[in-house]
Amino acid sequence: MTALVTGATGFVGSAVARALLDSGRIVRVLARPGSDRRNLDGLDVEVAEGDLTERDSIKRAVQGATEVYHVAADYRLWVPEPAAMDRINVEGTEALLRAAAEAGVERFVYTSSVAALGVPGKGEIGDEETRIEAEDVVGAYKRSKYRAQKLVERFAAESSFPVIIVNPSTPVGPRDIKPTPTGRIIVEAASGRIPAFVDTGLNLVHVEDVAEGHLLAAEKGRPGESYILGGENWSLADMLREIATMTGRRPPRVSLPHGAILPVAYLAESWSRLTGKEPFVTRDAVKMSRARMFYRSDKAQRELGYRARRAVEGLGDAVRWFRANNYL
Q: 220-242: per-residue pLDDT in tens?
């Protein structure tokens, strides 16, 4: 059985590739020429060079594949040109779906995100039925993932192609080489560079549990259905406190109102437009932080047999990996 993985050079994708190898599958990965392939070091994978914006390379990559795990995404909370993100996250997803269907792929697992779902109300915990209208989606990344999930849902409804959607919450753990926005928070907190925080919350899950959830979705998931792959709901304050304990630092004690961060976000984005570097804080991130992004994984547990370890293990593995690889 040959499984094609997109995004295998990245954080979640490399964990999926490792889980597939451990299961005995033959693994092929789609990787851009010149991409950072440190996460593939030592892995017995076939590399198909290509890009989600190049239709011919996609068609070559899916030939002979039994399964496709589409993990690749442009994951940034700020981009100078949102259309470039859509070309990867939306148009690239559609191109890969069509190529896989034409090639006779037997199972397609699409990695969406809880970012494509609705924001839980105050005191509520979201699930797969927590939906949002397009005009209420905040930020280029969330809008692109929302549009991509809608596209996948339509494709599944209008065809007999067996595509299953998984919605990871906030993965943490080893090999976050970029790092992701959450990984950047862990690095900054572990380095003692976060003096204050806002009142928000997120659902933390070990990246390796997310990877196992992908395999379970391929095996047991119902075509056209979505499954949240989450872990534990944590406040940002508790997350920063735990990281401080792990690193022997004092946790930040100052809680700032969201409005106090907005001027910083404006300045950070303005500087980023001059330098081309991603800002550490953005206006969209501040807007999103007003809600606690708490979710449950009951459906995945019930239908897939999905289980997640304690989130503190993911944080610990992340801190140890960042330290061992000189990020701290």
A: 999 999 999 999 999 999 999 99
Which residues 6+ apart lie within 8 Å of 102 measured at CB?
A: 59
Q: For residue range 114-158, what is the model confidence (pLDDT) as tens digits?
A: 989 988 888 899 999 998 877 777 778 888 999 999 999 999 999
Residue 163: pLDDT above 70?
A: yes
Residue range 29-70, pLDDT digits in tens: 999 999 999 999 999 999 999 999 999 999 999 999 999 999
CB atoms within 10 A of CB 263: 9
**Greatest CA span in the chain, whole angstroms?**
56
Instruction: Please report whether residue 287 resides in a domain.
Output: no
What pTM was estimated for this model as a whole? Answer: 0.92
Check residue 284 and give its pLDDT: 63
Tokens 């991509």 -> residue: 148
Cβ neighbours of residue 54 closer than 8 Å, sequence gap 6 or more: none
Q: Quote the number of domains for the chain.
A: 1
| DSSP assignment of 48-89 | EE--TT-HHHHHHHHTT-SEEEE------S--S-HHHHHIII
Going from the C-alpha of 54 to that of each of 32, 41, 87, the distances in angstroms are 10, 25, 11
Tokens encoding 39: 């996460």
- Structural domain harbouring 221: 2-177+204-233+294-310
CATH number of the domain where residue 29 is located: 3.40.50.720
**If residue 328 lies in a helix (H) or strand (E), which one and from where to where?**
none
Round to the nearest angstrom and report the end-to-end CA distance of the chain: 40
- The one-character DSSP state at 193 is -
Residue 2, classified by CB atoms within 10 Å of its CB into exposed (0-12), middle (13-18) or buried (19+), is middle
Q: Is residue 109 within 8 Å of 152, Cβ to Cβ?
A: no
